[in-house]
Structures are given as structure tokens and as C-alpha cells.
Amino acid sequence: MAVEGASRVRIVREAASLRAQVADWRRQGETIAFVPTMGALHAGHISLVGEAKTLASRVVMSIFVNPTQFAPTEDFGAYPRAFEADAAKFDAAGGDLLFAPAVENMYPQNFATLINVEGPAVAGLEDRFRPTHFSGVATIVAKLLNLCRADLAIFGEKDYQQLKVVTQMARDLDFETKILGAPTIREKDGLALSSRNVYLSAEERRVAPVLHAALARCAADISKGAAIEAALDVARAALADAGFVTDYVEARHAETLRPVASLVDGPIRLLAAAKLGKTRLIDNIAA
Ligand code: AMP
Predict the structure, then answer these.
(1) Which atom of ligand 1 is nearest to the CA of 155?
(2) How far is the CA of 182 from the centre of ligand 1 (A)?
(3) Which of its termini does the chain have fewer beta carbons within 10 Å around, N or C?
(4) Is residue 287 part of a domain?
(5) Catalytic residue status for 45
């Protein structure tokens, strides 16, 4: 097994080494929590490690910038990569094993399978703007769950539709790993932490918290009895005024992601995606 750099954490590049280590831990009666990421770690990712440590005796993180979830027009090449710093952060957070495979190993030349989830993956939210995204996500998560065989895997609510898609896929395909969600970690001004926030110019960074503020106001208005569509329109207008180009601002059933007409239709989640310049931000909150 390759062991590089940081003091405590094991860094593993090969699937066979991951499997061997996890099997070894299992024989010793350890429990395993898994945190899949694309790296460029921030406090949001680290919060998932913290949560994982309370739930299992070993924490495995994957760092893999997954090409199949990026459209050709998206930022796969430019996506921030910071492996050394990531390893140090994961180590400091008390993680045990970092799995960082090469693209060629995850997708060898004759790779020919894609997982297509329906239900929450075709809700008309992210999928409307990134039509191939969730099949890439579902495929890589299925592979990673199969390789890691963890007791549980933790995903951030930051990517709310993704959390629902992965939960659906794991249930439908009988994965034994339990899928858990964890709350979104934010900057003091409300901006959800994201690896993509580094793309924001100083001026865009100043404006970016408007996304969360608009959702928070919308949630408050709905809970005070405002009509949902009217409250969403206020949020859409606030985003446009601040200079965002909005992909969507929607109210959905928090579990199924189906449209909701009023509070009685069930727990509501507000979800939004909007661009500031070239940077696309997503966020969501409970209403
Ligand atoms: P990513 O590296 O962006 O694919 O994210 C890896 C995991 O971290 C996903 O489960 C994300 O939902 C989660 N995550 C990303 N940002 C945050 C955040 N601000 N708070 C909590 N979890 C997050």
C-alpha cells in the first residue's frame, strides 16, 4: 500500500489496497464511515469527517475529480486540485485513509456502464441545466460504495439533489452502506462553502451571500403564510437585482423533490442555482 506525505493518514491509489485495508479493519471489528469528495477541501468537507468520526471507528475519504459528472463545457480541467493540502487537512481532522485513484483506474478504456437514476434525478432542477451530471455522479458513487463497503457514507446537504439521488440509487440497488446527509457549512455572511468559491472575483464574492439571503427570506415569508410562487418571485427578483443570472429558484417536497403548491403538501426545501459571472453557485434550505 502506498503511504505518502502526511503523518497519520494512509494514502491509497489502488482499489485493491483500499479493499485490503477495509477488509483488515473489518476483521478487527472496526466500523467504517466513507466521505466521498472531489478534493480542494474546505470546512464543509471537514465537517463531514467530524460527523463520520462520531459514527464509526475508521474514516475513509475519497478524492476523485470525476470526469463523467462534468459536461464538456464545464470546468473539469480547471476544477481546483490541492492534494497535498487536502491530505494534511484530512490528517488533522483525524481521518484514516485517503483513496485517490487515477482516472484511468476508475474508468479503464473499455468502461461501458452508466447508472441512470430517475425520480429525484429528473426533478427539473440541476438535471435541467446539467442533463448528464447525475448519471456521472450515480456511477462514480456506486463504484466507490462497492470498493469501500463502508457501514455508512456521508454526503452534504449543500448538494441536496445529489444527496437524494444517491439515497435513491443506494436503496434501489441494495447497497448495504447507509447513506446519511449532513448540514451545509457556511461563511459568516451566509455563503455556503464550496470548492468553486475560489473562482469568485472580490466583487462577486461580496454579492454571493445574496443567494442564501434570498432563500432565507423566501423561507421566512412562506412560513409566515406567503403564497409559495409569490415568495419565489421575490427571491428571483432579489437575485436579478444583485446581478445573478438565475438557473432556478424552486420550492420542492424535501424528500421527493416534486413540486409543492403549499405548506400542507409536506416538508418543503427551497433550492436555487444561479451564476455570478462565470461561477455557478447552488444552495438550498428548509422552508
Ligand atoms: P464535492 O467535493 O464538492 O463533491 O463535495 C464532497 C461532499 O462534501 C459532498 O457530499 C458535498 O455535498 C459536501 N459539501 C460540499 N460543500 C459543503 C458544505 N458547505 N457543507 C457541508 N457539506 C458540503
Answers:
(1) 10
(2) 9
(3) N
(4) no
(5) yes
CATH number of the structural domain spanning residue 76: 3.40.50.620
- On whether both 156 and 261 belong to a single domain, the answer is no
Residue that is last in its domain, among 182, 216, 236 = 182
18 lines ligand 1 (CB under 6 A): no
Write the residue with the smallest CA distance to atom 22 of ligand 1. 156
One domain for residues 43 and 160:
yes
pLDDT tens for 51-65 read: 999 999 999 999 999
Structure confidence by residue, pLDDT tens digits, 201-254: 999 999 999 999 999 999 999 999 999 999 999 999 999 999 999 999 999 999
Burial class (CB in 10 A: 0-12, 13-18, 19+), 278: exposed
Predicted TM-score (pTM) of the model is 0.96
